[in-house]
User: Which sequence fits this backbone?
């Protein structure tokens, strides 16, 4: 099947892994060509191609609702919900919008743009569903960056208190906000990603047991049990904090392995109450230049696909606002150590990366947490 024939996401039902892989390739091709021509978000969408296909294969999109956080990563969603043939008009007048837009498609259930709203919106839809006695699924897909926003945590706090409200949260963890993600939650997610118990055992215990005289290989069944015990001592239970908050935790799952993703989502749909599936993805997946420079290719103006270089604008432009702002701030801060630049995960967009480079002690990234940033500044 070619992507152009996919006019409804339920046509994904029953496709083989091989067919899904072909669709994934076609999505990436169209994604790259379109953004190279019109500009737009690049890395976020390329990272969720398999996640989107696998999730949609396990849902009935005529009934179930998927809410994408921010919406800047939803280009694959747009292509498989009937907008492939118009996708070339992305971000042009009367064309396909760069974010989700409710009037554009019945599959866009929530139009945001601001981060950290998806779990609240999905939980609201889940509660409304239950009040009406309906039983469709609601799924929030949220990035690890957006998870640093207070509203996402407020929603988790609420959802974890409602054990009878079915809700699936898919955490798209690529370790990046626009810049590398920051904060204690990000560090915790990283710990979960790294705590691969199988690898831990392979690397450590098996070898050590083999060296014991008389025991060696013959000790295997006992060894397995001891290994399990030691593993629990050595590695914190993956997802323990999330489980303590009332969610069932599943993961981390390889976000580019369709088979694993489909099996995990199928399982997750059967679990009652709030469930969080932790998916590990690579921002920019499939376009080596974007994988390497994940900050630079979060979003791009028109560029040359072969080199990755931006196509220079024909009109000369005045310096950007952020450039002037950063220059002014650095000049002031160099002369006054009491000046500190605070950003809510927008170091590149505000020009503060320059301050970070020059005066790192006078720079703070608080994550996507604007209200905290302002009150922190007041403090
Ligand atoms: C409230 C708010 N602050 C800042 C932004 C700017 N912004 C857009 S995307 C993004 C990073 C999102 O990171 P993540 O959720 O991990 O998604 P990824 O881009 O990594 O897929 C930021 C900071 C925003 N959209 N909303």
Assistant:
């Amino acid at each position: 099947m070619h992507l152009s024939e996919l006019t409804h996401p339920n046509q994904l039902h029953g496709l083989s892994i091989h067919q899904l892989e072909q669709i994934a390739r076609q999505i990436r091709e169209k994604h790259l060509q379109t953004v190279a021509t019109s500009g737009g978000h690049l890395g976020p969408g390329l990272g969720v191609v398999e996640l989107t296909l696998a999730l949609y294969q396990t849902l009935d999109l005529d009934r179930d609702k998927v809410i994408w956080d921010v919406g800047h990563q939803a280009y694959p969603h747009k292509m498989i919900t009937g907008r492939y043939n118009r996708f070339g008009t992305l971000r042009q007048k009367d064309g396909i919008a760069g974010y989700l837009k409710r009037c554009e498609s019945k599959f866009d259930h929530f139009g945001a743009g601001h981060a950290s709203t998806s779990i609240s919106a999905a939980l609201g839809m889940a509660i409304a569903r239950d009040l009406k006695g309906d039983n469709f699924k609601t799924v929030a897909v949220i990035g690890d960056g957006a998870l640093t926003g207070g509203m996402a945590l407020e929603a988790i706090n609420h959802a974890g208190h409602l054990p009878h409200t079915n809700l699936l949260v898919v955490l798209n963890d690529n370790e990046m906000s626009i810049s590398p993600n920051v904060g204690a939650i990000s560090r915790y997610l990283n710990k979960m990603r790294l705590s691969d118990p199988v690898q831990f055992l392979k690397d450590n215990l098996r070898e050590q047991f083999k060296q014991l005289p008389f025991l060696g290989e013959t000790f295997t069944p006992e060894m397995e049990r001891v290994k399990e015990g030691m593993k629990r001592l050595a590695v914190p239970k993956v997802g323990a904090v999330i489980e303590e908050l009332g969610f069932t935790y599943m993961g981390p799952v390889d976000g580019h392995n369709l088979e694993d993703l489909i099996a995990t989502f199928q399982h997750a749909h059967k679990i009652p109450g709030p469930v969080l599936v932790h998916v590990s993805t690579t921002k920019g997946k499939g376009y080596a230049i974007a994988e390497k420079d994940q900050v630079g290719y979060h979003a791009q103006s028109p560029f040359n696909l072969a080199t990755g270089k931006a196509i220079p604008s024909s009109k000369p432009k005045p310096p950007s606002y952020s450039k002037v702002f950063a220059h002014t701030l650095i000049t002031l801060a160099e002369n006054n150590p009491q000046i500190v630049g605070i950003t809510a995960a927008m170091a590149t967009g505000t020009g503060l990366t320059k301050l970070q480079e020059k005066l790192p002690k006078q720079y703070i990234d608080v994550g996507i947490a604007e209200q905290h940033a302002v009150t922190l500044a007041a403090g």
